[in-house]
Amino acid sequence: MAMKFPDGFLWGTATAAHQVEGGNFNSDYWLTEHLPVTPFVEPSGDSCDQYHRYREDCALLARLGFNSYRFSIEWARVEPEPGEFSAAAIEHYRRVIGACQDHGLAPVVTLHHFSSPRWFAARGGFETAETGELFARYCERIAHDLGDLFAMACTINELNSVVHLQHSGVLPPDEYILQLPWRVEAARRNSTTPERFSMFPFAARGVTGDFILQAHRLGAAALRSGRGRFPIGMTVAMQEIEAVPGGEENAARASRESEDHFLEAARGDDFVGVQTYSRRRYGEGGPLPPAPGAKLTQMGYEDRPEALEATIRHAHAVARVPIVVTESGIATEDEARRIAFVREALRGAARCIKDGIDVRGYYYWSAFDNFEWLAGYAPKFGIIAVDRTTQVRTVKPAGQWLGRVARANSTEIGD
Ligand code: BGC
């Protein structure tokens, strides 16, 4: 069956500032990466030095065949101290957007992708009632200065992360998080308490979901009030949720609390960003590890490209707004496997479109082998390899392949 995508479909790759820019000194992540006891296997360092190499990177992505690029603006650079904005940092992002435009890449910006200014984490991060106003003040400034240049904006990346990680059994209980040595030390260095120092998404209090949703709402309103009209939405971390016999109730609860609660809040938005990597099964006792013998990615979760179709359908049914696949990808060193994964995921997206679901774009995670948070540089999500000593970029076979798919606007291009 021919799998043509609609005209104007957005084909891109996604990155986040802290994962590719390098030298994000003023962020809570940089601080935590450099503590004597830290959950990070290595610091982010110079990363892919995209802060300086964005021009070449945009040129390369455009040459490959993409028509869009999703990247994030780093709040820690733009507002280094509360209420004090850096015009120079904002100008930097104007130049990044300009580089996208020069190369025919529609700029899709994320206002918050995990990292925050250090002062924000020290004031309670997303765990306090003032979160919304602080985030909106930053959004307002960005919208005022750059809003006329955006093709689309995502407020907060995976704003359901905390609840999602809790339901997946990844985040330990709250009391434990509060006593983690790195949290205690980070608080001490910022003259605050471990109860207060909060770094996304390692939040420790159940209230976070609502403060984050309020931040999304106020942030979106601030973006709307600025220059320019562009679609605005949140992005949601999703999984294909499945129950083994006896796990029906747990699966339903995980779906309701970690996804639907947020997807329902997206109803008034212009789109919702679906971000899917795998499937999670639930049994009577809660989340289950992948089935014995299941094929795993470098991240330890199941290699399950079919999950994208399932989550697009679910997001559509609950949110009832247009969908953008803002992240989909696999960590592997095997390019044949990466291509097979993306092809399968895209076929699923194409089936959704054929059934009338309004899917507007697909962003592969990620453009580059970048800083994969706690896991450092070991997992290889990129379609472009980066030699981190010389910063030389090398396009991988999947990069060439996906670029051709983007140009043909179809997955059926042969290998
Ligand atoms: C995040 C990315 C991350 C990717 C792969 C997503 O949850 O938005 O920042 O690198 O997953 O783990």
Instruction: Give the helices and strands as they follow along the chain.
Output: EHHHEHHEHHEHHHHEHEEHEHEEEH
**Which compounds are bound in this model?**
beta-D-glucopyranose
- What distance separates the N and C termini? 16 Å
Which bin fits the share of residues in helices? 40-55%
Mean pLDDT: 96
Biggest sheet details:
8 strands, parallel, barrel
Strand order of the largest sheet: 1-2-3-4-5-6-8-9
Please give the number of β-strands. 11
Amount of beta strand: 15-25%
Q: What is the overall number of helices?
A: 15
Question: Structural class per helix/strand content?
Answer: alpha/beta
- Poorly predicted regions are none
Compute the gyration radius: what is it?
20 Å
- Overall outline: globular
Quick overview:
The protein has 415 residues and is of the alpha/beta class.
Describe this structure in words.
The protein is an alpha/beta fold and 415 residues long. Helices cover 40% and strands 17% of the residues. The protein contains 15 helices and eleven strands. The strands form two sheets. It has an eight-stranded parallel barrel with strand order 1-2-3-4-5-6-8-9, surrounded by six helices. Strands 10-11 form a two-stranded antiparallel ribbon. The chain is globular and about 60 Å long. The model has no long low-confidence stretch (mean pLDDT 96). Beta-D-glucopyranose binds next to loops.
